[in-house]
TrEMBL record:
Region (Disordered): 204-238
Biased segments, Low complexity type: 222-238
PANTHER family: HHE DOMAIN PROTEIN (AFU_ORTHOLOGUE AFUA_4G00730)
Pfam hit, one: Hemerythrin
Protein name as catalogued: Hemerythrin-like domain-containing protein
Top-level taxonomic group: Eukaryota
InterPro entries noted in UniProt: Hemerythrin-like
Residue intervals of the Hemerythrin-like domain: 28-96
Length: 238
């Protein structure tokens, strides 16, 4: 598997100060696993709120948790498309299994994109602004619709995360050095900084994604970005 040959520049932190302990830099495996645990926690929080959806203000709390899920998942998924899967594809010439696995992961991410759009619509959001009111004047989609949309998202994404942890991450750990995994981790973090939160219009029209803004592999993510609608530059070169 080809090693990454560039490292994105990330903002530095002044936390700790002189004499603070030197912690090891996180690898891409550390960051992906951390994201997975955060996402699982957010799903659990949403479930707690949904169980109390008949109580006053519960619908608003569900919307807040759905919004947090949308942000966390979109950042994570786009960074994977930019950094994680290209690492598998770079080794496709030597491993048909890796090429198939990368394609499977990309397909799963497109399904997640469609599910995210459904969550947005069910939470009272839509491309271009608030969703049209349904039912009584000023009333948006109800908590039952939002709960169903989040459950569909959770079912697809949970299976995808298990596949990554069982198949993708072990292959990276076996193929790359600790130093290369840290470089990939920096590129993964940088890719998140370049993500657009505007969903793709093609997905809103009924598809699961056009590929643009999802897997545009033509440019390095470390480069300055002027078009925020294209949220998927390649963060790692072969």
């Amino acid at each position: 598997m080809a090693a990454p040959d560039q490292t994105a520049e990330l903002p530095t932190s002044d936390a700790g100060g002189t004499g603070s302990p030197a912690f090891a830099e996180p690898s891409i495996i550390d960051l992906v696993l951390c994201d997975h645990r955060n996402i699982s926690t957010l799903f659990a929080l949403f479930e707690v709120a949904a169980a109390r959806k008949q109580e006053p203000h519960a619908g608003h709390v569900m919307q807040q948790h759905a919004s947090a899920l949308f942000q966390e998942i979109r950042l994570h998924s786009q960074a994977e498309l930019d950094v994680l899967y290209p690492a598998l594809e770079a080794d496709a010439a030597g491993s048909t299994d890796n090429a198939v696995l990368a394609l499977t992961c990309r397909d799963a991410n497109q399904q997640v994109e469609a599910d995210l759009l459904a969550v947005l619509a069910s939470a009272g959001c839509a491309l271009g602004g608030p969703a049209a009111a349904s039912g009584a004047a000023g009333a948006g989609p109800g908590p039952d619709q939002l709960e169903a949309a989040v459950q569909r998202l959770q079912a697809h994404l949970s299976a995808h995360m298990v596949e990554e942890e069982r198949m993708v991450l072990p292959r990276l750990a076996a193929a790359l050095s600790p130093e290369d995994l840290i470089i990939m981790g920096k590129n993964f973090a940088a890719a998140k900084l370049a993500v657009s939160f505007l969903p793709e219009p093609s997905a809103a029209a009924g598809g699961v994604g056009s590929g643009k803004g999802v897997a545009d592999k033509g440019r390095p993510v470390a480069a300055a970005r002027t078009d925020t609608a294209d949220a998927s530059d390649q963060a790692m070169v072969e």
